[in-house]
Design a protein that fits this description.
The structure is a single chain. This protein is an alpha/beta fold and 720 residues long. Helix content is 53%, strand content 8%. Strands 3-2-1-4-5-6-7 form a seven-stranded parallel β-sheet, with helices on both faces. A six-stranded parallel β-sheet has the order 10-9-8-11-12-13, with helices on both faces. Strand 12, helix 28 and strand 13 form a beta-alpha-beta unit. The termini are far apart.
């Protein structure tokens, strides 16, 4: 430290005028001491007198050979100012260092970081200070990694070609031991999921792949695949899958690659080719299961609990699929260090309930869970929401932020999320996303709450640290507990209730689709994932049997492939392709619901039924045909229809599915009767009574807590 001790208190308190007077007097007494001149200039600078600072320093140019000491003093003071919380002064000092020594990469990186902290950064600054040229000239090992990483983490959140250029030139200064990708991955996740800069993330990943380690390469390629899916570039997605499969013969890499091979096929509706891919994937699951925890790639390991969800779209075989799910989730949990440090709620005033999801927004989870949050008894329950790495919209603001007691915005930093949930001392944590979210699965496996429950999502996770799965009397068979790891808690009426949906104005007519006014329109509205060929054959058989009928296919992913699938099957079933119509998704959910009215009958998918789509159809009063299966995903429409007050359209065999489809198509009176029942049922059926449902689920929470307390009491030593 160069500053004199007798003036240091004034300096720390920001009394720069006194500091100036001290050094002016000292220089008058000892003009030959150059250091005092440097310090006086810095005091001028901190006091906002930059011109006097420059004049003081430049007056010494004929007395000194270089200005290294000034740079050193400026560096020390910049650090001191930053540590004291004076970011503006720190930046000011670093800008003067850059004038004296313009090619110091660490200093230039710090200028960028400080500018971002102060909100004054623009990507053009990178060029203005010559940062890229400085890093390009710097010798490997001369750049401080933590300073470099801090700057890159901040700059990447500014989508720009200059940000990418900075990343590219920085890679030579990063070694595998730095675990660089691990450190910036949260930024990629934020850019992707919250800020929606998908193409920019693709550019970042492609840049990082140039020097990625083998483990990082798999993580980056997996994320790249997800990006291409988001921008519906299936060609690039397929190329990425090939890169993964060809990158290593290891069982874990092959397991992941074969999953993605099956995933991309189903997304495009390529069910005809999926049987071989399915068998290959099941073999890969068995291989990964046999590996245990030995040498599984960390990225693949975190993917284990979400890896079987794809099977539910292909076959209705819950005993086998649930067994695979349970084993993989056990393997995943065993790989973690579970501290079991969850703290019990010490207050007896209210029950603390936490809801964890990345979809408190315009998403099925958001549309369906909002009523529970709305009707929760705030006198008895304290509601915590954990918004897991999500973007926010009008639904978030209106239905969640305004209704919860506490809202926590968590990113993909698992330890921080777990620590936050633990510190909130919840009584119960409710997982809404289930096996569709690796983050949720990780959090649940680490057991931050004493009681953990899965509700909604896509079936249960099978994670041992999840205690309950909320169902109802119909959505899983009576013997389903045999193949669930979680305890099934059957709510008395329905596992879900809503009070309806917002409906906009239709923008589609029969004339637009070249369909006569007196024709019967069957509608199937689902994603490519659910386009099972056997179900399509049933739907075509219905159209074939009902004169003057048409099948409207909505919600396909790759239009050409889905059309080819329907055309091929129509030819096999002797149905004219002129009776098929293909339409894309609507611009928003409200328009989609309004356009449902064009259908006379909706034909559900199997083995994965509609969920939100079925609820929307029932709310609009439209008859629907569903085939009841054994797995959770194959019984959603069944339980919703029963709880909406109708049984017409519920089929227990493929033949019944066809029969109901034909009957509903040709019998207008039957359709009118169903419409009337559904309209009347809005007033009194369980599916539309969200207030009663909320009381049912709250009763379940109270009972679960009571059972847990009794179990704990039973474990306590008796006192005689």
């Amino acid at each position: 430290m160069k500053w004199h001790l007798e003036i240091f208190d004034s300096l720390q308190s920001g009394d720069y005028q006194r500091t100036i007077e001290f050094y002016e007097k000292l220089i008058y007494q000892q003009p030959e001491t150059i250091t005092n001149h440097w310090l006086l200039g810095i005091a001028y600078l901190l006091d906002g007198r930059g011109e006097e600072a420059i004049a003081t320093w430049f007056s010494l140019l004929d007395q000194v050979e270089d200005m290294d000491e000034l740079s050193e003093i400026l560096e020390d003071e910049a650090l001191r100012q930053k540590n004291s919380g004076n970011t503006e002064n720190s930046l000011l000092l670093r800008e003067y260092i850059a004038q004296i020594e313009p090619h110091l990469p660490n200093n230039l990186l710090l200028i960028v970081s400080l500018s971002i902290e102060l909100g004054s950064f623009a990507p053009s600054l990178i060029d203005e200070i010559g940062l890229i040229e400085s890093l390009a000239r710097a010798e490997p090992g001369s750049v401080d990694f933590e300073i470099l990483l801090s700057a890159i983490e901040k700059v990447l959140l500014y989508p720009n070609i200059k940000s990418l250029e900075l990343l590219n030139v920085s890679l030579v200064h990063i070694s595998p031991a730095d675990r660089f990708i691990d450190r910036i991955y949260s930024q990629l996740s934020k850019l992707l999921h919250q800020l929606k800069h998908v193409n920019y993330v693709i550019d970042i990943i492609q840049t990082c792949l140039q020097s990625a380690t083998e483990d990082d390469r798999l993580l980056l390629l997996g994320t790249l695949y997800g990006c291409y899916i988001l921008v519906i570039n299936f060609k690039k997605a397929r190329e990425t899958v090939k890169q993964i499969v060809n990158s290593s013969a290891d069982s874990d890499t092959q397991f992941y690659g074969k999953y993605l091979s099956l995933d991309i096929a189903l997304r495009q509706g390529e069910f005809i080719e999926s049987e071989t891919l399915l068998n290959n994937y099941k073999e890969a699951i068995e291989s990964i299961d046999l590996m245990g925890n030995r040498g599984i790639n960390p990225f693949v390991k975190q993917f284990l609990p979400t890896s079987t969800h794809i099977l539910f779209y292909i076959e209705d075989n819950p005993r086998q699929i649930r067994a695979l799910q349970n084993r993989l989730s056990q393997l995943f949990q065993d790989s973690l260090e579970v501290a079991n440090t969850q703290q019990a709620n010490q207050s007896q005033e209210k029950i603390k309930i936490g809801y964890l999801s990345g979809n408190f927004r315009r998403h099925s989870i958001g549309w369906l869970s909002r009523w529970l949050i709305y009707y929760h008894n705030k006198e008895k329950f304290e509601i915590h929401l954990y918004l897991n790495n999500q973007n926010e919209d009008d639904i978030t603001a209106k239905w969640f932020l305004e209704k919860a007691d506490f809202v926590n915005r968590t990113a993909d930093n698992i330890p921080e999320t777990v620590q936050k949930i633990q510190s909130d001392q919840l009584d119960i944590l409710i997982d809404l996303d289930s096996m569709t979210s690796t983050i949720n699965c990780w959090v649940l496996a680490l057991k931050p709450a004493p009681i953990q429950i899965t509700w909604l999502g896509l079936d249960a996770t099978g994670i041992p640290n999840v205690d309950y799965f909320l169902v109802d009397p119909h959505v899983v068979p009576s013997d389903a507990q045999q193949y669930y790891q979680e305890k099934l808690w059957r709510l008395p009426r329905t596992y879900l209730a809503v009070e309806g949906f917002e409906v906009g104005l239709p923008n589609m007519t029969r004339a637009d689709l070249d369909i006569p006014n007196d024709a019967i329109i069957y509608l199937t509205s689902q994603s490519g994932y659910k386009r099972h060929p056997e179900t399509i054959k049933l739907q075509l058989a219905i159209v074939k049997a009902v004169p003057n009928s048409y099948l409207l296919v909505k919600g396909f992913a790759n239009g050409d492939i889905v059309k080819e699938l329907f055309f091929k099957l129509a030819q096999q079933e002797d149905v004219s392709i002129d009776r098929l119509r293909f339409i894309p998704y609507d611009r928003n959910e409200e328009t989609h619901r309004a356009n449902l009215q064009i259908a006379d009958v909706v034909l559900d998918t199997y083995p994965y039924n509609g969920a939100t789509t079925t609820l929307e159809v029932l709310w609009m009063g439209i008859p629907i045909v569903t085939l009841v299966g054994q797995q959770f995903a194959a019984r959603n429409s069944y339980t919703f229809m029963l709880n909406a007050g109708i049984s017409e359209g519920i089929a227990y065999s493929p033949q019944e599915y066809i029969e109901w489809g034909i009957k509903l198509g040709i019998n207008e009176d039957l359709r009118s009767s169903i419409h009337w029942k559904l309209a009347k049922g809005r007033q009194n059926e369980p599916l539309w009574n969200a207030k009663q449902f909320t009381r049912d689920i709250e009763d379940a929470y109270f009972e679960i807590i009571r059972l847990q307390k009794e179990a704990k009491d039973d474990l306590l030593p008796s006192h005689r």
